[in-house]
Structure formats: structure tokens, C-alpha cells
Amino acid sequence: MRSSVYFYPTLKETPQEAHVASHRLMLRAGMIAQVTSGIYTWLPLGLRVLKKVENIIREEQDRAGSLEVLMPTIQPAELWEKSGRYHDYGKEMLRIQDRHEREMLYGPTAEEVITDIFARFIKSYRDLPKRLYNIQWKFRDEIRPRFGIMRGREFLMKDNYSFDLTPEGARASYQAMLEAYVKTFARMDVTAIPVRAATGPIGGDLSHEFQILAETGESEIFYDPAYETLDVNSVTLDRLQSLYAASDELHDPENCPVPLETLKTARGIEVGHVFYFGTKYSIPLGAYVMGPDGKQVPVEMGSYGIGVSRVVAALIEAHHDKAGIKWPESVAPFKMGLLNLNVKNSACVACCDDFYHKLLQADVEVLYDDRDLGSGAKFADMDLIGLPWQVIVGPRSAEAGMCELKNRRTGERIELSLEDALNRIKQ
Ligand code: ATP
Ligand code: MG
User: Fold this and answer.
1) pTM score > 0.85 for this model?
2) Does 157 contact ligand 1 (Cβ within 6 A)?
């Protein structure tokens, strides 16, 4: 992509309304633009990151034996009256009337819709277990939307729902999701600690929140330092239950199994939440299957959310410096930036154009800064948007067939031939 035709309206100044790094940097990098309180447009650069995050989440959900569906954003109140949550949900729910004066709502979550689908189509224990998920926009009329998309009103969520015949089966589904989550966040280069949590309005008796550690996190968490050495490929529910991690609400210093000297305290951003809630929705919504003995049994359910859009902000909180964002490669909007430091010098242009085409041929995602701007502005923009690699070419280096390769995360810069740079990047 050439910068000259792309659209990323970067800002030099810090926007007044932004109080945390991720909000500031997303606005300054031209990733998002506010439409109204808690509601944003994702601009091209931000959308590329959102899609990458979404895809990693999707791949791990699929790998864990889940099936993707797409439920609507608008739901009928009727289903929520059946589950008994319509009145409890309160002002966070955006309620709408259609032209026939039927009560509708913009879904804040989808337990009711999915349980109803299950109830209508799945009738036998032979079809279990089932794990159905979607990645869809949700709306919660938050009392205090803040920190940009971190706590928006409209936000993208991955929500998965598991259906099992027995509580043991439901625990296996729960464990499969825990494993999938640990792998998902490891692929994005962040540690997300599964913290025991209160179950809140969704209800249930087994629940973990996934917290990405960041100073600006809204939650205070307490955890066993053993989490820092956890092998992501061998996480089990038992192993997690044997390690202590609790939210502020649940942490009891008197009865904490970890000695105070070793216990770690940190702030975290809740990026995911998993619940096991048994038959709380299956009974009122009629999700029963025929068991092996021919009797009707309500299915055992769990639900598993990830705040996809919030993850984008949390990744920035975990990976940035004064100059801007430092994207992990797996979610970077482009793998590299190519900077032509002088677009009026024909040798430099020819050299950069040639290099750009070779990158495209090699399927390297590249943002080519071919704008007529001073080099200071180009360096600042590139550091701000945080692509993992930068290749910098000026008239003198172009003449010699050389460039500078910069690693945004380590700050390391080396001079090498354009050919060597290409080979390195291809790896
Ligand atoms: P919070 O405690 O942050 O309000 P929640 O407990 O209400 O979150 P869940 O119902 O567990 O959230 O929703 C699943 C996930 O959706 C959360 O873990 C979080 O990552 C994300 N999420 C919830 N509310 C918002 C929001 N207003 N903006 C962005 N993401 C959100
Ligand atoms: Mg929660």
C-alpha cells in the first residue's frame, strides 16, 4: 500500500480527551475516529488490526472444536422475557421499538438467541457436545464510556456457547476454552492471566476473567508468580485451579494460599470472560435433549467471551513507547514500512519502487511512504503507527544499493544491501 493513496490521518498533538496511551495512540495513528460517545468508526489502519485479532481468535476457536455462526445484532425482547433477564439488565440495554411497537433490543450478549436456536434444532444427546460462537457487534449503554474503544458502548465481541449433556462434559468444554484462550493471547504476544471471578448478571458457579497486565487496567488482581512460567501448551483447568489468581472482589488476604511476600499484585485489562452456568438458560428456554435412557434432560451450558475490539487497545497498552505503538508481528497492520526519504530524487524513487514491487511479489505486507514530506515527519509517523520493521532509503544509500533496516521493538538499526534486507524480511 502506498501512503500517498492510503488514509491514516495521523495527529502530531495529543488529543485532549484521551487519558490512556491506547486511546491517545489510536487517535494519533488514525486508526479510529469517534462518531459519538462510546461509538467509533474503524479507519483502514485500525480495521486491519481488528481483523487480524479477530482471525487469530477465530482460528483458535475453530481449533477447539467450535462452529461459527452469525447472530443478529437486534433481538426480540420476548426471548429475554423468557430467561427473566429483560427487566434485570437495566439501563445498559439499548431498547428499541419497531414500527409495530414490538419491543426489540440491541444485543449486549446472546445467550437467549443461541439457546433458542439450540432448542429448536438439537434434540438428542447424540448431537452433543456442541460449541457455537459468533463474532458480532454488541451494544451496552455503559454509564461511563471511556478510554476510546477500551470501554465503548458498541464493541466487537467473540461469544461462544457450549452445550453438553453432563456437568463433566461442560467442564471439558470449559477447559477447552481456557486452553484456546491461553493460546490465543500467546499468539498476540501478551500474557493474559485467567483470574477467578465473580459471575455477575450472567450467573453461574465457575468463572475466570482473562486479564492482560497493564498499569492502566481497570481491575486490580492478585496472582501467584508461577503464572509467569506457565507452559501455554499444557494448561489444564486443574492446573489453573491449583494456581491462585483472583480479582479484587474475590481476593481475601486472610485466606490467601500464596504467602504475602510472593503474591503479586497488578492492574489488568479484562479481555475475556468464561462462565459455566449449568441449566440457567436451558430450562427457561426449553433446551432439552433426549438422554441415553430416553428421558428429557436440560443441557449444561457455558459461555465464553472475548472483547475483540478491547483486545486491540489492550495490546497497545502492553506494547508501546513514547514514540508510538510497537505492534507484535501477528497483529501488525503491515509487516513493514518502506520509507523513501526523498521523492524528488529519481534514483531514490526508482530504487524504492523496485524494492516495493519485490515485496509485493513476495507477499510481504508493506506500507510504502512515498509522500512528499520531510524525513522527520516520515520517521515520526512510522514510529507512531508501529510497524515491526522499517526499511529506510535515502538518495545516498539508494546510489549504493543500500538501506537501513530498523526493528521498531528493539530500536536496533543496521545498514545492509537492499538484497540482504529483502531476504531477511522474506524469512
Ligand atoms: P467489564 O467488567 O469490563 O464491564 P463485563 O464483565 O461486563 O466487562 P462480559 O459480559 O464478560 O463483560 O463480556 C465479555 C468481554 O467483552 C469482556 O471480557 C470484555 O473484554 C468485553 N467488553 C465488555 N464490555 C465492554 C465494553 N463496554 N467495551 C469493550 N469491550 C467490552
Ligand atoms: Mg466480566
Assistant:
1) yes
2) yes
